[in-house]
């Protein structure tokens, strides 16, 4: 399962990249707004930092297919390879996906709230589809189940598309999708950090360290023995 960072703050992205295995970064216009800077400059700085082969997902904001395609061409030119153009699953968006996929552009269908939206986007040529898991949960639906249904439908119909599940608020949502074999998730830095946090682990490490120091003296490690 690919793990992407859903953020545009370069310091936060660098911190997560330093400690955790990651496959790229996803953004949307609201995430970029939080930076309060020229969004294209923010995206360029993220691209410069990312290692070769890492994915960068960035969204168009135009409302017509023709304008979305113009935007996508510009974004691909500026942000280079391994850039995924995020397009919302409106009717204009689906049209843009159909046309852009003919150029072999990487497309991520976004703002997905139903499994049918994902299916149609995949048929239109989207490589990834992003159901909003936690937003669905907040609406009284089952976000994890929607992501699982999309995954199953892609397999059943032999579509060359994956789920890129988005909008997480806790580890349990991520775990449920990981256990199901979902292709990729994107989560905010605090959710990614939460994936491994456990008080029992911290306590175990504390006891191991104390025991070792009582044996060989405070501050010594295997390195000095
Ligand atoms: O990219 C979509 C995703 O970021 C939405 O997440 O946390 O705003 O529901 P959230």
Automatic annotation (TrEMBL):
Its EC number is 4.1.2.-. Keywords: Cytoplasm, Lyase, Schiff base, Transferase. It is found in: Cytoplasm. Its main location: cytoplasm. Coiled coil: none annotated. The keyword Kinase does not apply. GO terms for cellular component: cytoplasm. CDD domains: Transaldolase_FSA (cd00956). It is an enzyme of class 4 (lyase). InterPro entries: Aldolase_TIM (IPR013785), TAL/FSA (IPR001585), Transaldolase_AS (IPR018225), TSA/FSA_arc/bac (IPR033919). GO terms for biological process: carbohydrate metabolic process. GO terms for molecular function: aldehyde-lyase activity; transferase activity. This is Fructose-6-phosphate aldolase 1. It comes from Clostridium chromiireducens.
């Amino acid at each position: 399962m690919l793990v992407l960072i859903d953020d545009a703050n370069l310091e936060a992205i660098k911190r997560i990249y330093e400690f955790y295995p990651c496959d790229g970064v996803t953004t949307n216009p609201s995430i970029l707004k939080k930076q309060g800077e020229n969004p294209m400059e923010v995206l360029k700085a993220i691209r410069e930092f990312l290692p070769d082969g890492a994915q960068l997902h960035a969204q168009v904001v135009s409302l017509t297919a023709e304008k979305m395609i113009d935007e996508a061409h510009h974004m691909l030119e500026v942000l280079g390879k391994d850039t995924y153009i995020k397009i919302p699953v409106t009717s204009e968006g689906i049209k843009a996906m159909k046309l852009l996929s003919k150029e072999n552009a990487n497309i991520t269908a976004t703002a997905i709230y139903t499994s049918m939206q994902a299916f149609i986007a995949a048929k239109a040529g989207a490589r990834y589809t992003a159901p909003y898991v936690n937003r669905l949960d907040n609406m009284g639906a089952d976000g994890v189940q929607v992501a699982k249904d999309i995954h199953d439908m892609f397999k059943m119909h032999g579509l060359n598309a994956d789920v890129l599940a988005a909008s997480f608020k806790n580890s349990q949502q991520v775990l449920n999708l990981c256990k199901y074999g979902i292709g990729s998730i994107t989560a905010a830095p605090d959710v990614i950090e939460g994936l491994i946090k456990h008080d029992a682990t911290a306590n175990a490490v504390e006891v191991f360290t104390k025991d070792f120091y009582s044996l060989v003296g405070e501050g010594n490690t295997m390195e000095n023995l």
